[in-house]
Target: Immunoglobulin domain-containing protein
Amino acid sequence: MNHLLVSLVLMHLAAGVFGADDVVRLSVMEGDSVPLHIKPDEIQGAEKVLWTFNGDEKHIAWIDKEKNTSSVPENGREIFRDRLKLNNQTGDLTITNITSQHSGLYQLEIRASSKISYKRFNVTVSAITEPDQRSHWVITGPLLTVALMLLGGFFIIYKRCKNKRSSDEDKETDVPLK
Model:
């Protein structure tokens, strides 16, 4: 019985430690809009909601429910100019027209009267690359070949039908009159 109790306590502690460091991983393409969602129960009872980027002390967005205010300050962060949208009701942060400069760790700090909790989002932004010309021809070449073969086949059928018609017309005109 003692071993069972010790095992349960250790499992509970391990779940608490590992659960605290959960990171939501998001992979997106340049130019996309990326919403960083918060579950309603995570923000319930929160007095302040603070967003930071890559461990910087400066907040990129915040909500103060006690003062009924929110902000997305520039704070010298040119990379976020006109790109952050903060939902005052849910605390969700949306990054619009994202670029590779926006790759990194976004941390949400939720302050309630009795506790502080965190949620982390690791955002990876992939660049849009121009398609390789060779890969373009890998698809286009066979399609063009098939299209030309079909066109050639239709042309041959057309010519045969036309020749047959003119041959039939010649036979009709060659009929001797009696």
